[in-house]
Amino acid sequence: MKTATFGQLVRELRKTTSDTQGNRWTRETLSKQIHLSVDQLGRLERGDRKYYDQQTLELLADAFKLTPIEQKEFFIAAAGINHEEHYNFANPGEQLNDLLNVLNTMWSPAMLVDAFQNIVAINKPYQDLFLVTDELLEISRQHPIIFNLLYVAYSNQLGIRDLLGPFWREIAIIQIHQFKRTTFHYQHLKYYRSLLRELYKLPLFDVDWYSSYRTPFNKYQHYIKYSYEHPAYGPLNYIGAVTTNSTIYGELQLIIYTPTDFPTTATFYQFAISDGRKVSRLSDWPVKPSTLI
User: Are 111 and 121 in contact (CB under 8 A)?
Assistant: First the structure.
């Protein structure tokens, strides 16, 4: 990340986090906390400061209440590693097509998710498992935020709470922490702020978002265990495993759902043989819409 971009990231973190009294950081209060002058912090936020000592970075991470996972991303950003240059060996369009082809070969439910936790594509078994209708797919093309994973989790209209039952809140909180990790380098972008504004409108999202700072999630899970009573298929037990693919536009995650008992295996087998293979695109990648709704 270039110094100017890192400065923008620090400024955005300052504006969106609070001190121990719950007050938003100002340049004056934060500069005292990290033992810099107001002018020095201003230069850092403008990208004029080319060197960051370890103590300053650690004090910033502490002031922003970053989890260990977020601290790792913060220190990587401060190191000046240019993400675009680091992954310029691969053509993003080819990477996407390769993953879509893999998705089309999967017999288990699977989806492709971008760094903002937008669902880029799903296969037909996924559509069957989560009861995604063709009508909802059509609506998503007009309102792309509908298939952001956090929007799916917290929206009252999409029915995921009824499908997962009480288990939905646990999954939603894990997804918040995943979102914070995968979008960490993009918090200064207009798209990120616009997306977050829309998510804040959803009931309980703001509660869980702010509680994530008080009860940090200190590990990056490569899988999530699901165990619940599905309204259409009965008891289901499976694992959602994540395969991460790095691109110049951030991560593309291929999430594959694998059954862990015989009844679930039988249900997934019916998905595989009933409707053939089909992949549905849900959101643009890497180009983001100028508006979310």
Answer: yes
Domain ranges for the chain, please list them: 3-81, 92-281
DSSP-assigned letters across all residues of 228-286: EEETTTEEEEEEEEEEEEEETTEEEEEEEEEE-SHHHHHHHHHHHHHS---EEE-S-SS
| Helix then strand then coil, % of the chain, to nearest 5 | 55, 15, 30
pTM above 0.90? no
- Separation of alpha carbons 249 and 28, rounded Å: 34
> Among 101, 137, 105, 135, which residue's Cα sits nearest to residue 281?
137
**CATH class of the domain at 92-281:** alpha beta
C-alpha pair distances (Å), 109 with each of 4, 90, 118? 41, 27, 17
CA atoms within 13 A on the CB side of 55: 4
The per-residue pLDDT of the chain, averaged, comes to 89
Question: What residues have CB less than 8 Å from 80, skipping those under 6 apart?
Answer: 1, 2, 3, 6
Q: What is the pLDDT of residues 201-251, one digit of tens each?
A: 998 999 999 888 776 665 556 789 999 999 999 999 999 999 999 888 888
In the sheet that holds 279-281, the strands lie side by side as 223-230, 234-247, 250-259, 110-113, 119-123, 279-281
Q: Which of the 8 DSSP states describes residue 133?
A: -
User: For residue range 28-72, what is the model confidence (pLDDT) as tens digits?
Assistant: 999 999 999 999 999 999 988 878 889 999 999 999 988 887 888
Tell me the C-alpha distance between 1 and 104, whole Å.
34
Q: What are phi and psi of 42, to 5 degrees?
A: -60, -40
Q: Specify whether domain 3-81 bears CATH 1.10.260.40.
A: yes
Burial class of residue 167 in the structure, from the number of CB atoms within 10 Å of its CB (0-12 exposed, 13-18 middle, 19+ buried)? middle
For 126-137, write each residue's pLDDT tens digit: 999 999 998 888
